Predict the 3D structure of the following.
Amino acid sequence: MQSNRHPKVVQVALKIPFADHLDYQLPETIDPPPLGGRVLVSLGHTKQVVGVVIGFAENSPHNSLKPIIDVLDKAAFFNEKNLALFKQAAKYYQITLGEMIFTALPSWYKKTTNKPVPLQKWWQAKKTLEQAQKLLVAAPKQLEVYQYLNAHGPITSKSLTHITASAAQVCKQLAEKGLAQANELCLVDNQSASDPGFTLTDDQQAAWLKIQKNDNLFKVMLLDGVTGSGKTEVYIRFIQSLLEQQKQVLVLVPEIGLTPQLFHEISQRINGQMAVLHSGLSEGARARVWHHAKTGKLDVVVATRSGIFTPFLNLGAILIDEEHDLSYKQQDGIRYSARDLAVLRGKVENIPVVLGSATPSLETFNHAQKGNYLWLKLRSRTNQNPLPTIVLQNTNTNKPTMGLSNKSLNAIRSHLADGNQVLVFLNRRGWSPKMICHECGWVAECDDCDVYLTYHKHLNLLKCHHCDRRYLLPEFCPACGSQHVETMGVGTEKIAEGLKENLSGIDIVRFDRDSVKTPKQWQQNLETVRSGNPCVIVGTQMLSKGHDFPLLSLVVVVNVDNSFFSSDFRSTEYLAQLLTQVSGRAGRAETKGEVIIQTQFPDHPFFDALFTQGYEAFADQQLVERTELQFPPTTYLAIIRAQHRDANVVESFLTEMTTCCNQNQHVNVLGPIPALIAKKQKMHRMQIILNGNQRRALHALIHQLKKQFNADKVQWFVDIDPVTFE
């Protein structure tokens, strides 16, 4: 606690890699800042930066201190629980406290030149659809916007721009006619919460009773439910119970594309204020959500990874949907896991944490199996439909053309003829992943990265998906001069083109990072699917989770075989999660589901383990293998990766580091070895992999290396609990 006396020294956390804080003098003319508040200080000779106060002292070991320039917050910006989370997280991820705090802090609050946080309007329909239809007979565009508001509100006008560019103006016109209303917070009409009167399945009822028995103290619960088993209904009932106690709830989702669906489902069922928080929002919008959550104006925040740091006035629980998803792990900068920090935050704030998934990560599965987490299982679908029929199609005898075999195409035609929708899944965008010379075997590679170039037909260019560099198509092979240079393999662009050629008059809707670059494009594509007309959805991993397409009856999965030859020990776990998730998109409503998996290895034991025995039995088997091989989650892993323009320099640096590591008896060291992508953006990349039975010993070794080796000569970083080896 801060003393009433005027402290002489203020300890300020800054975004610096060499110290948790710097000491500054507090002039007699400036009132003491609050603990956890922001201050303006000078760093270096001329730079003025924002810092966060983490402590006070009467004196400092340093003789000459710079003065605090200004106090930016009269009240604490971060409370003591927030600071406790940052301190523990910084220690775990082997970074300074300032680096952790400034990873959490939105850009808006790192500046001193901001205007007041801008307001935002949330629109909601006010009258019934029948009343609106009578009033808007002569205004079809207003009626179209109203219908969308009525079905999907509360919503911002920006989210209506796929209907009309002048959505804000149309909303104002509807308000003037008494058909819509706006508020700076999400839920305008708190009486709009609806009770659909769902009858819970026996599994849902059992899970809900166990959650209700929870005393709202720290506990981690795994809601392990097959796709379509109604995890969202359990979430909503838990949220409702917390709001009745005047508590706030944080809900995390792995992708921006999943926020609108879950947001809408929750908003229809609660009496309270909601907001979304993700990187697609403006700096001002993110700052506004932080402010409203911190001051208690918001009841529920639905957020992506960085939302784990959102400060709340009275946080009651954290829910992590699709907890297994790799998107929860930050892959650059400070490499934190939002799922793991959620568990840590629950412990710090003494609140429950719910992890939801149809395919729990092996780390979470291991905790549940050992009894560390309360394991709540949902094993039946709410619609009582059986899980989809799985068909393994041998592509050795059913050769694909443009990515799809004739058998797959015939199945697609059959499902479309029944009035249903189809998803073709391929986790590879572009037209073709390789351009190859059939004479000498040359393959087009990026000059700056150690990867093959992908051909994009709509651009008529070769493109590197790691540095975004683009290349013109070669007229002949640069190695041998042959003109037999052709594309090899398929991507989503080629699949979509092949479907258009074979299915005239059917909408082909593509979901990948090339075709869906903005929220507006995402919304337009979703509306095509939601129209209910027969269509084929072609998508990458962004469609494999969480989305509910009621009329989807067939899923065709293309090209899964690469995972069987991966050097990543987690590859089969990720493949099992991916196939289970994408299969679960089929047959979610009244339609019977079918899944076709095109593979060259239909007899691979992986398929029998997953589809005959189920994901839980598969995970059991994987845990046994991991234990025998001494791999996580039964051991603890870290990667030290270094990069330099000179390959010899980086190898020499890591060799010296490895020599130091080898002296530790509790940690196994592999390396130095090239990273999976050995060159990226002209930088040569190598790594050493540290694997230990004792987490404390592993972290102690890394701490020693951080003190012994600086980053002046070679750029290097530590990835604690890595999820990939790239």
About this structure: The longest strand covers residues 667-680. The first helix runs from residue 80 to 92. The radius of gyration is 27 Å.
